[in-house]
Amino acid sequence: MLKAIMTQGSDKASSTNCRSSIVIFISVVVLIFSWNPAMLCPHMDYDWSGWNASDLRPLAEMDAWPADPANKLVYARLHSVTDASGPESLAFDSNGGGPYTGVSDGRILFWNQGGWETFGVTSSVRQVTDVCNRKPVALKNEHICGRPLGLKFDAHGNLYIADAYFGLLVMSPKGGVAHPVSTQADGVAFKFTNDLDMDENGTVYFTDSSTRRPRRQCNLLIFEQERTGRLLKYEPSTQQTTVLAKDLYYPNGVAVAKDSTFLLVSLTSKSRIMKYWLKGPKAGSMEEFADVPGYPDNIHVTKEGDFWVALHSRRTQLQYFFANNLWLCKLLCGVPVHYIGQPAHSMVIKYNPAAEALDALEDRNHVTTKFLSYAGERDGVLWLSSVFCPEVWTMKLNKTNSNQQN
């Protein structure tokens, strides 16, 4: 009996020691990977030198941000994009035709009498390979097929395109294959061309979100707070490209003010909108325009001169916790921070030129909209689109009765 008790006690002790050893081993592994995440993901080439949480808006102020308690975006009307996905932004031609949009297989589509048709493509390689025609197009093939993002027509009907992999392109009014007009600046090739807009003279302003990472690694720009992005200017008359600002945190959407005195650019990883002055005594300088409660994507100016900002998702308390703990970001180096915890929380905010929030619309449980990348106003209708989903939405802005449909 005594022997049995001693044996049992020995087994318990061995079990406890075993569990302790496992805990210690796991702790050591965690510490190693937290200190050097390259051991866990050696192909990613992580750089944490730009990581900074000191300028993060206090969590206690989240309730002071614009909000939509009525959750009005759930009443937006869905327009499916058939046989394609990811209409990142929208554009209309000078005759009011459209919308036009770029999708994940490298095509430019346009809405024609109730259906989507192909207007053009950003890659001539499609003529010699079928990888771009396979559905769905694999993320790994984006650099072959192209990934058109920002779009804008000039006064002559030419469509300027920010293609994530091929740079700044232009397509004739008749469509077809786009050709590049700018692929580098100051000897540094574009790695992630993102969005564009034009001023009153046709000068193109656009963003290169990173000089290190391509679009297919866009989540890592947020996670490691990478800051090699640039704001650029292309002058069609001279075909010259100029760097206006560099060392930016994930510069994304860009919109030129109605009077062309300044432009706004979204810094996605910082949840911030910046103002860059184009004219006047502050020309060439940049200042903060607004903090936003999520991850801003494209910005669109209205005919009245206000700005719609699309938020890919609203920031959550859990995401705020991750953003304040570098060791945790390093540990979870392969997990996109804005997917952690809660589902996408769609939101758009309208600002006037003085940075005052005029309106906010939300879909807090992604009932109808999700992963918004674009919000633009046209003839009293708000157009919305998503860089990930095969969907475009519309919503009449004068709707006050939530029971009414578009």
Automatic annotation (TrEMBL):
Primary location class: other
Pfam families according to UniProt: SSL_N, Str_synth
Chain segments annotated as transmembrane: 21-40
This protein's record includes keyword Membrane: yes
Localization, UniProt: Vacuole
Keywords: Glycoprotein, Membrane, Transmembrane, Transmembrane helix, Vacuole
Signal peptide (UniProt feature, chain positions): none
Entry keyword annotation includes Glycoprotein: yes
Family: Belongs to the strictosidine synthase family.
PANTHER family: PROTEIN STRICTOSIDINE SYNTHASE-LIKE 3, STRICTOSIDINE SYNTHASE-RELATED
Protein name: Strictosidine synthase conserved region domain-containing protein
Species assigned in the record: Sphagnum troendelagicum
